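Q: How do we represent a protein-ligand complex in a form that can be generated token by token?
A: Start from the inputs.
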Amino acid sequence: MTPVIEIIATFAVIAALTALAITLYRNRGTRKQSEAEVNAWKLRLEQDLQKAKEERHNLLDALGDAFLLVDSAANIQFANEAARSLFGARELVNRPIRETLLDPRLAEALLRCLETGEPVQSRVVLPQQTSLRGDQENRGVNAWIIDAAQLANPSDGNSITRVIIRDVTAEHQIEQVRKDFVANASHELRTPLAIINGYLENLLDDDMLTEPNVARHFLTIMRKHADRISHIVEDMLVISRLESGEANTLKIEPFRFRSCIKDVIERLESVIRTQNADVVVIMKNPELIVKGDRFYWTQVLFNLVENALKQNPHPDLRIEIGCENDDDSTHIWVTDNGVGIPSADLTHIFRRFFRVEKHHSQQEIKGTGLGLSIVKRAVEAHGGTIQVSSTPGSETKFSIKLPLTPN
Ligand code: ADP
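Then emit the structure tokens for the protein with adenosine-5'-diphosphate bound:
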């Protein structure tokens, strides 16, 4: 090889090596760059996943119902805020469901779903003083709906079950009150109906129509009981209207309260006179104006004053009707110095059909047992409150507080 060729060959090798070195260097840069890119993607993906997870948790936390995710081994994997507060401050995640829902009636529905894979919806009513955690808790009757269903049916057998626990205690109580109302109303209506039927049978089967005096006597009794039935039905309708919460139930207008008192005294005048009762009106401002539905306020006062008269047919009865305003409310009261209400009965006095039986010296029940329920509902429909205190034989006082601007 000639020296020239040798030099050229050396240069060619150097050039090739340099090109290789440059290529290798470049590739190393590219590899580094793609590694950095992959890492950046990874990070972004993780961040996105974390964000999505947080958003999902926030959404589930916003649910009013308790929500749990439970794995196939019956361990809790997720609990939303409602669930956490339902079970107290205890840690729920990674804990077995059997340990968390101590009451077997609650756990049973959920475990059935885990075992069978079938969706389960079950309503659980627990007796007083039992909470979800099985602790002693004074919450009255508690009712829950447990709704459990598997989210998917994966081949690896590691299924997730979602559980919704809805507290339906309030609905349950309303339902119970309705049931009681229907039962009580039927009971109250059955008695006068049975009496009317009895007299009708006598009149027809025993052919009493031929004896006008007896027939008249029977018919008079029947009319009294028919009146009672229509009284009960009317009272029930008033309660139902007040409870419906419909905006047009009340016609709110300003009226002079004194005129309302006057109407009530006039309507009860013959009873007041017969019983020789002393009815006193206390109003510092006789022109005092109340904003409300005059019809219902007359009924409220009528029921309270009529009760005071009805429960105390003895002489020396003094009834006081009062009304005055302070800065933010109107205070209305009715007091009497009659037999009063035993303290044990005071908390039940506004319940529908409640009566203090002991005081029924009369042979037959005169009222419907709905009078005070109407009073309470009418007062509350105006945004007011009513309280009762009683020292039997001394003073029984019904006090109403009504905001100056009603709802
Ligand atoms: P009723 O139609 O029987 O009067 P209410 O709801 O008006 O029904 O009253 C319920 C019960 O409360 C009455 O049966 C009575 O036992 C008691 N009560 C109400 N007001 C008085 C009062 N002023 N004095 C004594 N007992 C009262």
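Residues 173-243 form a domain with the Helix Hairpins fold (CATH 1.10.287.130). The chain is about 50% helix and 20% strand.
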